[in-house]
């Protein structure tokens, strides 16, 4: 990653991510890593007192530390261009995404929003329309797409190196919700298992959506129909904590998607296997620097991050030499790097370099919302197949 | 494996497994390994000339080398007890299993038969009835159950070490049928893709049945309903070469079963993951000496073959010290060892030691046939769930 | 890592690390990650023009962007306390470390210096004396000690969980110098293979010193004598590119240390195995989140970063949940985090929390210099053992 | 492995390997596996009563079950050619190898002998002379050379695929002697730690010799000088239980050899890494079906047993398809298969096919004895290097 030029540092605000939050700190680490943007404003909690205290913890100036996001937005609109934020990062629980994202987008701000994007397809469509109308940048932090070897996989599949894709198996297995953790005061477990805040799905929304995005990113395949079995395997839970899906893709490929949060002992076992007529790719998030390529007619190959023979999109997503592990924060930072490259192009009035402005967009987020909606519909249906379209 | 006593060597015949066959030689290696039985008679092909030539290749005496299995059976029935075979091993293509197995079983012979046992549930039931009526030994070579660490997994699950089982994921992936190999003169590919010889299923029958058996063996869970998607992904193929199944088990556990022969580059990727409330087990056939145990509340443990802390059923399935790999043939030999222990108990008129007489039985084979039948029915159905029972 | 309080951001300067440098950017990423310090001043190259251009690239203010380190030091001494740097980070080629580090230390500045610390034991001793006299903080970036699982290994060995240590095997293998890369204009290869800039050793100085430090950090064992075989296996090279050492430690433990830069195809294969009477630990830098523990009397355990059962020193070196990989930059940031905790304690006039102020110190750097010196002496000797002491 | 022809079954006798022995049963399993030879005679212990009881356990006919090896030899010499053994397998403790091997060799019998071959170079030379004089077959069971992927490694190195070899690191680590097991009545531990029966070396003789042989087999490199550090790390032990060696090879390559039996928790961790100018190979006995090839200028490759792109010497050492593990017994059987191919060639008066008659010979055994002798000499010396020659 070339850091040898010195464009001005961007400014960002954050909504959500205060005390007791988890993912907000990850976003801040990821943005800090490359030193391209400074954290200047925020409304860090839905509880005004906690929001202000959190902002003080993180060194926000008083005038830019707000008790709610409406105040933040109002204040930013009054500031001169050389003070105003370049983008806002929305890291609240899911149910808050929509109003905040829509308000900032409609006000002409560039936005980064966590996933799943919103609760319903209607909300997603409204957001897509707003972003298109404003012509602004809107990134969705499907962070796993930032791993260099995911980008290498995408390049290999898209270039035809695997031939025609026939079978995709993607899994995202965790064990942290294997007990009734939401009954113990755990804030993360509490909101993620609550339909009012998490949305219509639990595990499928939280991690199944990452799995869907990983398949779409790497293969470009479009889901034609879904057959889902969702379970609430921990007694007393209102949302699915385990889901298994059969998938059929346009063009004939078949797939399986598994997302579970009751797989005791598993940590963040996101893994993808894509088989085509010429070969198979295997990637695992817990060993992200390796991409295993099994050609049909030769020995297994293990591609590693940082190698000169990788695709440019994979090479530029890397900061340090091969063999020195990069991880989750670096991948997350790559997504932010893509967003910021696009923002800078907007600021310059230039066309963004597609290799640089490489990040999941509002349309990816909207597709993810539809995936959740159709999966929940399939789980409720006695028909084997639920089509994507209707 | 205690080899320090010297009971007499048993005698066996083989049906099938001649020139050009694959699995017959594996059976013979497996039987030879522990030196407990000698190969004395056979009808090694459905083509009489090839049968006789194959028997000569393998050193059968002329009087016990037969052109067809009917002649073998007739001859054995005439022989005195101290010459007659102790069991017959049936390693033909699938469609031949039923008549041969039934004839030998009804004639009072102990039988070992390859899997899938027969083509239909009716045949399977007839065979079960015959075996029960005769009170003979009947083993089915679900060979993967012979691995020590599969037996360790079974012991851990059955003793409650994983708590209540919630989720099972089993896969058996191969790549060898990713092209239209049956069009190239490959004998294995030819019969395995031919419904007349292979049965109603392709990949599901050949390897999906191993996956079903592995789940049943390790967990004891009973399938309640199946949702199957079977595909013939190589053009011009009449039987499934790829299958994905959602499973529901009695008692509420969920499962996924994947069997594919078009996963380019994969060799014999049979793998099992069983998650309970207290922990998860992971086993892979390609690294069979390891069983990974992930407790919910402590570090991952890697159990290895040959360790003194394993269950007795795992320990006795082992011949050499830990760290010296044992493989496929050894596991296969363990299945035969179980059959032979049961035969010896019959010969002695004693009750077999359950730890010794540890092998898949005719009922396991019959359950496997039903699994195939219900899976094919589900694949043809538009209903999401096809029940096991009807 | 608790980032919920908001002490003021520290200020740092960098010497070296300008255009074409490699490790300077890593230091800057590592410092940026946690947002605890801002980069405010520098002298980024020994070539004044390049130094100034590099500083502009990185956004240094003109008044704090210097053409040489002497100017940087002079300028800082004139600045008021609320502008002056809190520490300087020295990331030049090795031969420049000594004068810069000594000058800043003697001027009362806190210092972070890359390894190997200096060229000779005399220089090292002078530096140790200066730091002790001034009572300042002096960190040496043996960055691998920042990995959480290295800290876990240290805690387990130090607490006696492995019993008495008997055998240590440490390796650091790379392949990047397997060809005469220094003849191709590669700046890194150029200075690292030049005795005038790199010092008396090549591979042993660059990576063998990391291996020595890793052993000392984890085990606390002191080397008693060394038997070294150093080779220049690429024709025309003046410094060792491959070294193998037998080690004897005080108290009777034995060791092997291998450091090679001609191991074609290897990336950064740093690995450690420590065996005691009660068990063995195995750690590999390329999979840093795992620590394998092999007890003498039970199954292998795999400890993973982020688990609640780890030692506090390992837990606090972690930012994100288990299963989300952290890597090289995060480990590097942990070393800087330790230095900054100690600096903050100095600023507060308080005693540093040892769990927080966890970083390699000037004495570790000095021991590393002696290691290199004694290794080179051994390699030149025909006696089997060269003692550490003389 | 082609078993389709039916030459007559060979006959063999065994010396040693009775009740309580370990390795004898492994030899018998290995010979049984391919059904090429029958066990017809023996003198299975140095204690006549135990020898006879052991023979009865294993079903030897009374007339061929002897109380000592002299009686066995005398009896065999009286038997007609169509009864007489084709070879004798010597699996006694080390100190018995020499007299038995010499007597059978001088009597014109083909011999298989376990390693280390004998106690002294003088004995080894006498044996080599006897074998050459008689022109008989003499195999030494360096069984690890029977693994297909070891043969693949040998083929790749010998064909120049790695370029010029520069560095070899070989380790054989076990933990089973980490306590004073010989004081507990363990028969294996008892004789292996007793100089009178084991010879001048402990770990170096038992497993270091395998490591030496593996290097010689794969690379063909000749050791020029040795620098050894041997330790008796368990109190009260007379022979080394831990050894580390620096090696220099003719032609300039460097090496490290580590053999330890006090590495708590390790099982049979034999591993080899060979680096040349063009690439590196890595092989581990505990995952023997994989050979990792790291080219200098391309992605890592993982070659697996059973693949059509392997060298013929690796392909023919395989019985079953790729992905179905083969292990230790199969490798052992490959060594016996090589010996038997050579014996059959002798019986036929034909020249053996080198691909078939692939096994370690008496000269390999003699080189192994010299390796042990020079290593022990080096360990006793204060000079850094002890030359191989003198």
UniProtKB/TrEMBL annotation, chains A, B, C, D:
Gene3D superfamilies: Dihydrodipicolinate Reductase, domain 2, NAD(P)-binding Rossmann-like Domain. Residues 10-142 form the Gfo/Idh/MocA-like oxidoreductase N-terminal domain. SUPFAM superfamilies: Glyceraldehyde-3-phosphate dehydrogenase-like, C-terminal domain, NAD(P)-binding Rossmann-fold domains. Residues 150-281 form the GFO/IDH/MocA-like oxidoreductase domain. It holds the Pfam family GFO_IDH_MocA_C3. This is Gfo/Idh/MocA family oxidoreductase. It comes from Variovorax humicola. The lineage of its organism: Bacteria, Pseudomonadati, Pseudomonadota, Betaproteobacteria, Burkholderiales.
């Amino acid at each position: 990653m070339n850091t040898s030029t010195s464009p001005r540092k961007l400014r960002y605000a954050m909504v959500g991510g205060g005390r007791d939050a988890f993912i907000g700190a990850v976003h801040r680490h990821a943005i800090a890593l490359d030193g391209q943007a400074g954290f200047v404003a925020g409304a860090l909690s839905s509880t005004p007192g906690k929001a202000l205290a959190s902002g003080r913890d993180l060194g926000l100036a008083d005038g830019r530390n707000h008790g709610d996001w409406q105040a933040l937005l109002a204040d930013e609109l009054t500031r001169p261009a050389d003070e105003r934020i370049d983008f806002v990062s929305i890291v609240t629980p899911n149910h808050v995404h929509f109003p905040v994202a829509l308000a900032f987008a409609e006000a002409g701000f560039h936005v980064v929003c966590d996933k799943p994007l919103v609760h319903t397809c209607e909300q997603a469509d409204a957001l897509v329309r707003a972003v298109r109308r404003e012509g602004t940048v809107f990134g969705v932090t499907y962070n796993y797409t930032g791993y260099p070897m995911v980008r290498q996989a995408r390049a290999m599949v898209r270039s035809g190196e695997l031939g025609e894709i026939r079978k995709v198996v993607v899994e995202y297995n965790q064990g942290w919700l294997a007990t009734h953790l939401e009954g113990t005061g755990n804030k993360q477990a509490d909101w993620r298992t609550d339909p009012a805040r998490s949305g219509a799905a639990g595990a499928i929304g939280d991690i199944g959506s990452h799995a869907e995005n990983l398949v779409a990113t790497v293969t470009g395949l479009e889901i034609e129909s879904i057959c889902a079995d969702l379970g609430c395997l921990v007694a007393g839970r209102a949302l699915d904590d385990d889901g298994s899906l059969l998938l059929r893709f346009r063009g004939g490929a078949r797939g399986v998607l598994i997302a579970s949060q009751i797989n005791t002992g598993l940590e963040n076992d996101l893994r993808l296997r894509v088989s085509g007529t010429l070969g198979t790719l295997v990637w695992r998030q817990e060993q992200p620097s390796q991409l295993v390529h099994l050609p049909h007619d030769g020995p297994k190959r293990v591609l590693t991050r940082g190698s000169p023979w990788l695709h440019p999109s994979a090479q530029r997503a890397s900061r340090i030499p091969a063999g020195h592990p990069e991880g989750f924060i670096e991948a997350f930072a790559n997504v932010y790097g893509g967003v910021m490259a696009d923002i800078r192009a907007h600021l310059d009035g230039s066309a963004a370099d597609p290799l640089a402005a490489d990040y999941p967009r509002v349309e990816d987020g909207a597709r993810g919302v539809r995936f959740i909606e159709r999966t929940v519909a399939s789980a409720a249906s006695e028909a084997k197949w639920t089509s994507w379209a209707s």
